[in-house]
Each structure stands twice: as structure tokens, then as C-alpha cells.
Amino acid sequence: MVTDTKTRRGARKGSTSSSSSSSSVPTDPLSSMLDGTDPLSMFAAASASEAPRMQHSTSAGDLGRRKRDKEEDPLGPDFEPWSSKRGEILARFTTTEKLSINLFMGSDKGKAPSPGSAVSEKVRTRLEELDDLEEGSQRELLNLSQQDYANRIEELNQSLKEAWAADQKVKALKIVIQCAKLLSDTSVIQFYPSKFVLITDILDTFGRLVYERIWTMCSDPRPLPDGFTVDDVNDTAKETCLNWFFKIASIRELLPRLYVEAAILKCNRFLSKTGIQEILPRLTAMIRGIGDPLVAAYARAYLCRVGMEVAPQLKDNLNRNFFDLLGTFRQISGENVQNQLVLQRVEVPEYLTLYSPAINWILQCIAYRAPESLLTEMMERCKTLGNNALLLNSVMRAFRPEFVAARATDFIAMIKDCDEAGFPKHLLFGSLGRSLACADPPESERLTILNEAWKVVTKVRSPQDYINCAEIWVEFTCRHFTKREVNTILADIIKHMTPDRAFEDAYPQLQSAIRKILLYFHNFSVLFSIERFLPFLDMFQKDSVRVEVCRSITDVFLKNQVEPTRDPVILNAMLHICKTMHDSVNALTLEDEKRSLALLIIGFIRMVSFGRDFEQQLSFCVEARATFCNLEPVLVQLIHTVNQLAMETRKVMKGNHSRKTAAFVRACAAYSFITIPSLSNIFSRLNLYLLSGQVALANQCLSQADAFLKAAVSILPEVPRSISVEGKFRSSENFLLDFINNFLATLLVVPDHPEHGVLYLVRGLLNMVQDYTWEDNSDAKVRVYTSALPLLAAMSQETYLYSIPKMDSNETLYGGDPKFLSEINKLCETLIGQILDHLKALSKDEQSIRRQGALAFSLFGVVLAHGDLRNNKLSQLSVNLWNLSHKHGYCETRMSVRTLECIKHQAQQHDMTHLTDVVQRLALQSRT
């Protein structure tokens, strides 16, 4: 602020504009306190004199302005906020050099004036306090790493919050001023963008705290509405708000005064409707006084950021900041900047990239919902500046992709005219490629665009710079061209990234290229016919990355391959990819990871179909078994596939092909019989033996069926008493009982082997059950015996309940032979005797009695349903079982009543009258 206090002492308005001037020699405005006058008092007087006019003015222009502001759209979700850019900037702009922090925190002496002091004394106290902010004790922290520096800044942020919470407002202001001063330090220039991010976080915190304090002061007695006006703000809040601006206006140094006032810019809403519109141009003009172009660029970025938050409709100020920034570009080639770069050993291209976050942000603000004509204007300004590469790059990234794509050819011409030394052209083509990946250029220009871009990209020597740009243009190529052009791109990438194993440092970019290819190539026959695609995959030699890429390819294949395929190109490629996933499994692989990989491979196997070429399908399964032998779920799926193949073969091949069919089915059975023992899960083996045996029976392959069923019986003793289910150990008893019941149901149609005894499979199963080590106090063995009785009853019938076409069961082999029936009866008597012995032993305690009643009632149901109750022994047995089940009253009454009603209903049939006597002997009992 430059004023002439001698000639304008009584009339000046307290302007803080840096553009004010006087013909007399400039003086220090703070020194005027010696004359009894200070700028803050005059600032207050000017505000007081303008307040009535500001509050009572209701001109047509003011009303129109209010209406426009009200109708102006706020920032929408399509505007990318600053918060989304913080992480990228902090990660990108790093340094290994040592950093330092210089803080002049002042002293903590208090200087509260007495209530009766004169105005000049108050002014003197205020100015001494502000002087103390800038001339206090120095605190310097040296040799800080980047992380240490960030930690110290965060500590200052916490100190600010703590001081504010303790009502130490002066200390809080000290912290903010000193942090803002740090932004003038460019000693480690490549770290400056990250330093800007860290320190402006503190400024944002301070601005929020001040705004919230004044807001709270306005909320008494009722909360302030969101759309409040100056008239809604009470005098106390206005006075407090003015006091903050007075303190900030008295900060001597330009940079902290600018930043701190910008931080509380939003607070102008409490003072004036149009205050922000007047202050933004003044702050913009103040930035012209900053000598370092990099520091000035970020100061403009911060002003644009707070400006977009509080008044996004004020586009003129954004434009003014941008045009001022353009004017500072000539400083970059000046002596001061060049000497600084030489001193810090920083090349010009690296230095120019430091401007990118600031310029990108300013242009993003300008381009937000801007008309297409503005892009034309910006392009013309770029040409005026000799196609400044840094500016051109930011323009392409800021404006809508549709606008950029429509002018892609013009941008390429401008890029050609840029100076290669200042800003590499491949970065410009990278920015252009990002826009073209989102919007389509004119169709007639696409091939020219790709050729021009790739001429530049392919000449980039640095592998990292090359892949950063090439990865962007992969999407444009896939989006608009065929596999021929994509193959050319992939070949060029392989050529650049293979020497010196450069691909090891570019896995993220290579993965991104794969994802983009998969996004546009859903026809895998075309994709895998791209000659360089699989060699491209070979560059992923880090296990975790290679597996992740293969997973992504398989996942896309399963989502988009609708019809089963037999295409050899697809099968060979997918087998290679799935084998890569399979081979990554080792002893340290987690079960969830194994399960996930297995599901992907199973999905691929299910999509393979050779139609009626069953032998080719079986050959594929043989190859897949050898390839995926370490993933048990995959082997299980292959066995299911082969069994299904055997069933389909019987349906399709008939007549003259019967011998060939039988041979093929035997080959399928051999496949399963060889594969099943390799499974570790005992129940998988049991169920697959049973399933494969059933398939063999359905195809009249009796010897194969017999082998499967005997194998299942032979491994029953291996079943453990507990198994792991979803990570928890559970008793295997129920699983074993379910299997045995299914096995018994199958045995009905299995004919006895001529070289073995009668019912040899049934006897073998029951012997295994007898010898199996069941859990203590278990009724499982008796339940198996009870389940076997219906099977034996069904085997004694002249016509079985079900049979297999073209295959003779025991009903045909024995034809109701009395010896066969006698064997069945003896086995039934043995089983019933075993059950009754068990029931007698269950009488020790209440729990045993409950089990006894349940088992007795279950056996009663079997005898009633499958026994001939004309036999006096069976009739008496049924009555005894009924009485035993109801003896202690633990049998469910509702079930008993329904059972009796069912028996009475059956007794009314002409051939079931013998049940009448049984019903009369069955009585309901209850526990007393």
C-alpha cells in the first residue's frame, strides 16, 4: 500500500490496492502512527462512511446484480475439486535433498491496553503487536527429509488448531503468517509444488476457523441461513470480521499478506454483498509484485482456488490471473531464473513441469463450462507466445475433450512448432491422447492423427517416458482401428521395453495397456490372433503382476464369451493364460486365492465344447488334467465334464456306433477312475466314485460301475470324524450318512457279480459301517441299518421301483428265487437284531431315553411301510416299537396322531384289513 500521508491525511479512503500511486516519495504507511494516524483507523473510518451507502443502496443495478448472482449455477459434480489433486502432486513432486524451515514466531508477551487509554495508544499497541509477529525470535530446522518436512508442517497445522481452541488468536495468526512466508523459499525448487500443497492446507484450516467463528457469532439468537445477506449479520460479527482484515492489511510482507487475506476471502460475505468482487481484482494486482514467476504462478492458483469456492461466477478475475501468468513467461529465460536453475542443477524441462499443477488448475477453473469459442481464443494466445509448450499442454488438459478432439489436427500443427528443448513434445502428444481417448476426432483425420503422434512417440529414447506416452495412445488405436494397427503398436512397445529389461519398471503402464485392449476387443478369436499379444504378455515376468494380468484377461473372457468355443486359437491362448495362473499356486498360497483362481479356470473349461466330436473333447480334458493338477476344484470339474460327456455320447450315438460308444464310455470311466484318487478331499472322492459308477451303469458298463462302487466302499474307513467346512471343523457324521443313503439307493439297480456272493456290495457296505469308528454315543450306525431295511425290502419285490434301460437288475437275475429272498430275510433279521440291541442299551439317562424313542419310532415307520404285518412277529414288533417310542412321552404327539390316521386310512383298503388289529393295539401315551 503506497500513499502520501502528508497531503491526503484527512481524505484518503484507506485503499489497500497495490496499484495506488503518488507523485511524492513513498513512505512506510505503518510509520504514520507517529503522527497519530494509522492505516487501520482510516480503513475503519472509510468503512464506516461507506456503510450507510452500501446498506441502503437499492438501485436497479444492485437488484439486477443480486438476481444474476442468485441465478448463477454453483460448482457441480463435474468440476474436479482441488482435494482430488493433492495426492497426485505430493507423489509426483518429491526430492531427496535436505529441506529447512525458518520460522520467526515472535514473542508471546501480551499488550492488552487499558479501557481508558487514548486512541493513539491503542494504535501503538496494535502496531507493536504486529511488529512482534515479524521481528520475533527465529526458529530454524535444518536437514529435514521430505517426510520430516511434511510432519513438521502437520505439527504446525495441529498447533494452529490448538491455539485457536485455547482462544490464542494472535498465536494462531503468527503460525499462519510464518507458514505463508515459507512459500517464498524456492531453495529446493523441485519440491515447491508439494510444499504449496502442504502449506495451503494450513491456510485453508485458518480460513475455515475464522469463518466458523464469525458464523457462530451471527447464530445468536437464531442460526444464520445459508443464503444470508449482509443485513442478517449483527454488528459484533461485522466488527470482528473487520478486525481480522485490519490485522492482515498491516502485515508488512507482500506474500503472507496476500495468502492470509485470500484464506479468509469468504468472510467478506459478512461485510459486503459486492466485497469479493472488489477484493479479487485487488489481490490479483498484488501478485504482480511477486518477483519469482514460480511463486507468482502458485499464488495465482491459490487465489483462483478460493475464488472458485466463494464466487465461481466471477470469470473475469480468472482470465485476468491467467493473462498475467502469460506475461511472466518471459521471466523464465531471464538471468535470475536461469542462475537459480544452474545453482540447483535443474534442467529447464524439469523446471517447466513445476508449473503444471498451477497452470492446469487455473485453466481448469477458466474452462469449466466455458464455451467452445474460449478454446479458440486460448489457441490464438498460444500461437502469439510462439506455441509455448507448457501453456499448450495445459490448454489441452483443461478444456472439454470434445472441443480438443474437434481441433486435433490444429493442435498437432501447433505441437510441431513448439520448441523441443523447453518442453518435450511427447508430453504434449500424451495430453492430446488423453482427450482423444474420451472424445472422437473427425473420422477422416484419425489415421493422420495416429501417424503423426506415433512418429514422435516412437522416437522417445527414455523407456519410461516412452511407455508413459505410448500407453495413452493404445486406447485411441483400439478405439478406432483394427488388430493390424494394434499389433503394430504392441510390436513397437515390445521393441522399446525389452532391452535392458526396461519393462520391469513399467508394469503399471503395461497393465493399463492390457486393460485398454480388453476394453475394446471382446472377440477373443480376433484378440488372440494379434501376433504380438502373447509376446506382450511375456513381458510381465513378476509373478504377482503376471497372475493379475492373466486373471483380468480370463475375467473379461468369461464375461464376453457367450457361446462355447472350439477355436484352437482361443483354446491355446487361454490354456497358456490359465496355466500361468495355475503355476503360481504354491504351499504359501492362501485358500481364498486358490479358490478364486480355480473358479476362473473352471469357467474357461465350461466354455470349451467340441460339439459331437467327443473324442476331441476327452483329449482336451486329458490335457487340462495334466495342466491343472494342483487345483483340486478344477479336477473335480473335469471329472464332472467327462461324466457328462459319457452321458451325451449314449444319447447321440446309436445303432451301428454302439461298439464305438461303449469303447468311448469305458475311456471316460478310465479317465475318472485314474483322476479321482488324486483328490485329497475324501467326500469329493466318495461322491465322484458314486457318480461315475452311476454313469457307468447308465451306459451298461457293469465292470466299470462295479469298480467305482467297490472303490467307494473301500475308502469309507478313511473318512475322518471331523472335516473343515468354510474354515471351521464340523462332525463328518451327517455328511457320511447322506452319502451312504445315496449309495444304498443306487445299489437297488446294481446286479450281483456272478463271481461274488449274493448282495456282496450291500454286505460289503454294511461290514464297513460295522467296523467304522463312529463318535461316542452315536446312533449313526443304527440309522444306516434302518436305512438299509427299505433297500432290502425293495430288492425282495418281483418288480423293482426303478431300473436302468437295457440292463438287468437282480429282479431279472434271480426272478424271485426263494434262496435269494431267504438271504434278504436273514440280512433283515440281523439288522433288526442289531437295532434292537442298541435300543435296549439306551436307558441310562434322559438324553439316552430321548434317542431311544426317536430311533424306535423311526424303525416303526420302516416296519410299517416295508414289512408284511400279516406276519405275527412283525406285527408284534411294530406294536412294541410304538409303545417304546411313546413310553416316556418324548415322541411328538402331532406326528403320532397323523401316523395313526394314516394307518386307519390304509386299513380301510380291501387288502389291508389286517392293519385294523394293529391300530387297535397302538395307544398314545404321555409322560407323567
TrEMBL record:
Residues 15-32 have a biased composition (Low complexity). Residues 1-83 are annotated as: Disordered. Its main location: other. The keyword ATP-binding does not apply. It is found in: Endosome. GO terms for cellular component: endosome. The keyword Coiled coil does not apply. Keywords: Endosome, Protein transport, Transport. One of its GO terms (biological process) is endocytic recycling. PANTHER family: ESOPHAGEAL CANCER ASSOCIATED PROTEIN, VPS35 ENDOSOMAL PROTEIN-SORTING FACTOR-LIKE. Belongs to the VPS35L family. This is VPS35 endosomal protein-sorting factor-like. It comes from Takifugu rubripes (Japanese pufferfish). The lineage of its organism: Eukaryota, Metazoa, Chordata, Craniata, Vertebrata.
